[in-house]
Design goal:
- The complex is a heterodimer of chains A (about 150) and B (about 180).
- Chain A has about 150 residues and is an all-alpha fold.
- Chain A has 7 helices and no strands.
- Chain A is globular and about 45 Å long.
- Chain B folds into 3 domains: about 100 residues, no CATH class; about 30 residues; about 40 residues, no CATH class.
- Helices cover about 45% and strands about 0% of the residues of chain B.
- A two-stranded antiparallel sheet of chain B has the order 1-2.
- Chain B is rod-shaped and about 105 Å long.
- The relative contact order of chain B is 0.06.
- The chains are: A mainly alpha (about 150), B mainly alpha (about 180).
Chain lengths: ~150, ~180
């Protein structure tokens, strides 16, 4: 539903994954069009985040990878990622993931983001995660110097 | 000091680092926990919307941060709002709203552009006043009138141009 033609831009990041860790990429021939369907894509990421033994490193790897694609993640992927954050005991990571998903909505944020929040609301209440709006992080809180101005 | 860290990221090598280089970076980041791959595999921090999760936490692991981490292992509903915000700020420097906030730089760009344009316009005026010589005498009013009369007499551009606007019977401009 949120998918446009997915161009695999981050093969470099995937290539840097250690071989010993279970890879999120299946056997992949790097052509510009993949033969994976939307459901396979969703299932792959959901299964990745649903692994019982996932740790913070892998969650960050997966989210950075997911944000490289030209799509807004399906709510079920986000739910799996939030549950993974709970297993990894990292609250800030969960908030950051929701913020990143909101950013991925691009110009259509007012249509897509409320839908996503509505879909993941049961998980948010179950795990006790606040949305960035509830924390007051939808508006800037601190005014820090831009890194490009620090010399 | 952290700021210099961040500006160094543009100079960091893109090859796979050996353990010696990694330990150099680890010495720079101090007590910060390395939590991920980041955007290039090095233990640095950057707020980027295309790589939302940096490789290291933002703040060092001080005792109060560690106490919060212990509390984080329990039920998240028991965390107060301040603690949740403190946990976020311990891992991240700025929220998405903050690092994507508009800077208003465009105003200074337009302002400086207009100031430089005005300097150029003063330059043009100075050139005209002090540098350029006088116009030829043929630019005076009587000469130009005589040239226009000659153009009409020669019927220059009679179809759609200047002579088409002249009424040759009445010897005046067409109404």
């Amino acid at each position: 539903m949120f998918r446009t033609t997915a161009l695999r831009m981050h093969s470099l990041v995937k290539g840097a994954l250690n071989v010993s860790k279970p890879s999120i990429t299946a056997t992949r021939f790097m052509s510009s069009h993949s033969t994976e369907t939307d459901e396979q894509f969703d299932a792959r990421y959901e299964n990745f985040f649903n692994r019982k033994d996932i740790d913070g490193w892998e969650i960050r790897q997966g989210i950075n990878d997911l944000c490289g694609h030209d799509l807004v993640p399906e709510p079920k992927i986000i739910i799996a990622a939030l549950k993974a954050c709970r297993r990894a005991n990292d609250y800030a990571l969960a908030i950051r993931i929701i913020e990143a998903v909101k950013d991925k909505c691009g110009g259509k944020v007012n249509e897509i983001y409320p839908y996503i929040i509505q879909e993941i609301r049961p998980t948010l209440t179950e795990l006790g995660i606040d949305t960035p709006e509830e924390l007051g992080y939808d508006k800037p809180e601190l005014a820090l110097e831009s890194v490009y101005d620090i010399h | 000091m952290a700021g210099r860290l961040l500006s160094m990221r543009a100079l960091a090598p893109r090859v796979t680092l050996g353990s010696a280089a990694m330990s150099d970076m680890k010495a720079i980041i101090g007590n910060r926990e390395v939590v991920g791959f980041g955007y290039n595999g090095q233990p640095n921090y950057a707020d980027r919307s295309d790589f939302p999760l940096p490789a290291i936490r933002w703040k060092e692991n001080t005792p109060d941060v560690l106490a919060l981490r212990e509390k984080e292992k329990g039920d998240w509903r028991k965390l107060s709002l301040e603690e949740k915000k403190a946990l976020y700020r311990a891992s991240f420097r700025q929220t998405f709203a903050e690092f994507k906030a508009p800077t208003g730089e465009w105003k200074s760009v337009i302002g400086c552009g207009l100031m430089l344009i005005s300097v150029a316009l003063w330059g043009f005026y100075g050139m005209k006043t002090f540098v350029y010589g006088p116009l030829p005498h043929t630019f005076e009013e009587e000469y130009r009138k005589a040239q226009l009369r000659r153009i009409i007499d020669l019927q220059i551009n009679p179809i759609q141009g200047i002579s088409s606007k002249w009424d040759y019977e009445k010897d005046e401009w067409k109404k």
